[in-house]
Design goal:
Number of strands: 18
Largest sheet: 7 strands, antiparallel
Number of domains: 2
Radius of gyration: 24 Å
Helix content: 10-25%
Distance between the termini: 56 Å
Shape: globular
């Protein structure tokens, strides 16, 4: 009897140690991920040192500058081959103007393995967009007026361009959820979109380098005429749809490095 009890105690201790070792092994296979956002105008790298100077030309032929660029990304999601998904907490307001938040390390860590799809949302989806409890966004004038449906901006891109009369004119290319507020009730159309970064294998801490080609906001598939569409774009339902379509071609994955 004593031998039986001793054996059970030894077996119980072994099971506990094995379980702890398995947990330690599991914990050790979790890795940090960093998302770095760079910016370009076609082949030219763009930083805030390039702002406030008219030096870019869009597909319609207008010469323009950039004075502000900031945009929101959210819901970074990893999808396994079996369809299971892991969505990371948090969101990130990339502020190129002030050179802040161009690098983002979300929480939590990611288990090692191969993921068939990695993606993020440009802007907020509808569920996130109407939770107004984001003090940091509320404090930086990121809100959308209630008359336009409320919620938050997805992007603010501003600058100046040379118009048809050779005059330097301001533009404000702001993206939000498309709304037609000329009818009652208001008509909405979703204009957030998913950016698919493709398949990736995570074996250690990993950095994703993602580029926004700013010129694409003005040319693919809709050639943008700044003389006609330069301001008051937020309440312009059709313009928001065109910006949504152009946004599909803006982001690209440049590299993934450990």
């Amino acid at each position: 009897m004593k031998n039986t009890i001793l054996f059970l105690l030894i077996l119980s201790s072994f099971t506990l140690i094995t379980s702890c070792n398995e947990n330690n092994e599991y914990e050790s296979s979790q890795f940090n991920l960093t998302f770095n956002f760079s910016h370009s105008w076609d082949e030219k790298t763009v930083t805030n040192t390039d702002f406030n100077t008219i030096q870019f030309t869009n597909a319609h032929g207008e010469s323009l500058s950039i004075t502000k660029l900031r945009y929101l990304i959210s819901r970074i999601t990893f999808e396994k081959p079996n369809g299971e998904t892991l969505t990371l907490d948090g969101y990130n307001l990339v502020d190129v103007t002030n050179n802040s938040n161009t690098s983002f390390t979300p929480i939590p860590k990611i288990p090692e393995g191969t993921y068939s799809k990695v993606s993020f949302i440009f802007g907020f989806n509808n569920e996130d967009n109407y939770d107004l409890n984001y003090p940091d966004l509320n404090s930086v004038s990121w809100n959308v007026p209630e008359m336009l449906g409320g919620g938050y901006h997805y992007m603010q891109l501003e600058g100046k361009f040379i118009d048809n009369s050779s005059t330097e004119t301001s533009y404000a290319y702001h993206t939000i959820r498309a709304v037609n507020n000329r009818v009652t009730p208001q008509v909405f159309k979703d204009t957030f979109f998913e950016v698919d970064l493709g398949e990736v294998t995570i074996l250690n801490d990993t950095t994703f380098h993602i580029n926004m080609n700013i010129s694409k906001w003005f040319d693919t598939p809709n050639i943008w005429n700044l003389n006609d569409l330069n301001n008051m774009l937020m309440p312009n339902f059709d313009a928001q749809i065109d910006m949504f379509e152009n946004g599909q071609n803006v982001f690209s994955l440049k590299s993934i490095k450990p």
